[in-house]
Amino acid sequence: RVRVRELLASGTSVVGQKAVVKGWLRTARAASKGALLFLVVDDGSCSGTVQVVVSKGAPGFDAAASCGGVGASVSVLGTVVASKGKGQDVEIKADEVEVLGCVYEPDGTVGASTYPLAKKAHSLEFLRSIAHLRPRTKMHSAAMRVRHAMAFATHKFFNDRGFLYIHTPIVTGADCEGAGEQFAVSTLLPDAGGEEGNGHAAAAGGGPPMTPAGAVDYSKDFFARRTCLTVSGQLNVETHACSLGDVYTFGPTFRAENSHTSRHLAEFWMIEPEVAFADLKDDMDLAEDYLKYLVAYALGHCQGDLEFFETCPGGEPGLRERLKNVLQNDFVRMTYTELVDLVRKDAKEGKVEFSVIPEWGDDLGSEHERYVAEKVYNAPCIVTDYPKDIKAFYMKLNPDGKTVAAMDILVPKIGEIIGGSQREEDLGKLTKRAKEMNLPEDSISWYLDLRRYGTIQHAGFGLGFERLVMFATGIENIRDVIPFPRYPGHASF
Ligand code: 4AD
Ligand code: MG
């Protein structure tokens, strides 16, 4: 069996050779008064397809002519021939066709009139409602190939630099970001009233067991404590950075943000490197190198798919040009204070209108982030030194006592794609900060130990993987760059 990707890449050099192609029909059309059948086969290996010409009389001709057409699965054995058609060097002249799976109507007869993808153009919203068939679309399959390439390039980048891939846990008792956006995991042991380990809601009375003092009683919980799905692997991966040196984690993370935006998911993947003996400058340099590496990798390895994203309906015509520009320039670097000043000045001068004009100390809205990255610079911007009160407890306090050594990378159209910082390595300062932010010391004593026993300067960041795929493909909604998007009201299978 040859993949369509290899066949198209070989072009006319394989004319005359026998080939077996397996895949799904995009179209099936009779020609020459029924003497020929043209099948267009897609096997998902690339954004291209291969045309198969079947002559009446070839074994399987009748079966292929009556398999329902679009969506049916076939296996074709034939000879590669030069194609007279436009846009393709080669096609396959079939010796025989085997229909592997027909397409059926609800009444069991063969036909594609109710096949959800029978019509050509579909809204992305409709495609999300058929997540099990969405992989059959060109758009989704191209997005998944780029997604794969970005994951592979991530491992290659870090491996080549000597980083170790550390698997951090999904279930945890820690709240890294302290934003109160965690999904609780609560599982009663079967003998505690839950039905075969069902959640607390299955306990008698419908709610979790309570102590006489009115708190949730975790004594019968599987983990004997409150646990949640992780919002970030950072705190865990820091333990290994403070021993193994350069490490990273890459896994799913979960946030119960009730955000109905095109850039938030409840379940998303994050890459989090953590570097021993590094400061914020090292962190920014690593992040810039890594993003540029990913962009170069996409340009070098995903050409067909990027071309598809430039020409497909709703695509971004200048996609590859935009990506090349990312490689050619240094990222803009500015402080939070400079950014707020710029945004306020431009709003005052009437250059831009915002729904909210930020004061120093406010969290930036995506309208401000995007204005600066998109309209002012049209390039990735690294923003540093945020007010401590809008950032997490673990960030290193700057000498001014008001800001922390944090950095966010903002990119056009998306806004924040990376968030990172130098970590507070001073035990006293970190303990004080945790107290100020009402973090129970016993819940992070293990984390404080890293500062108690041979503390070191270290820094890291988190790249939102789906936002990266949006950046690399120009796809505008984060729900379209992950196989099964989770967002409010959506988590069926
Ligand atoms: O800025 P965040 O919250 O940083 C952290 O979690 C740190 N612990 C990372 C670290 O220093 N190791 O998240 C990092 C990135 C964001 O910049 C964004 O790209 C992405 O994760 N992100 C989301 N992506 C999709 N949906 C959401 N709800 C996201 N929340 C954050
Ligand atoms: Mg952030």
UniProtKB/TrEMBL annotation:
Source species of the chain: Ectocarpus siliculosus (Brown alga)
Protein's name according to its UniProt entry: asparagine--tRNA ligase
Signal peptide, first to last residue: none
Gene name of the record: ASNRS
Alphabetized UniProt keyword annotations: Aminoacyl-tRNA synthetase, ATP-binding, Ligase, Nucleotide-binding, Protein biosynthesis
Coiled-coil features, chain-numbered ranges: none
Family, as annotated: Belongs to the class-II aminoacyl-tRNA synthetase family.
Biological process terms in GO annotation: asparaginyl-tRNA aminoacylation
Residues of the Aminoacyl-transfer RNA synthetases class-II family profile domain: 144-483
Keyword Nucleotide-binding: yes
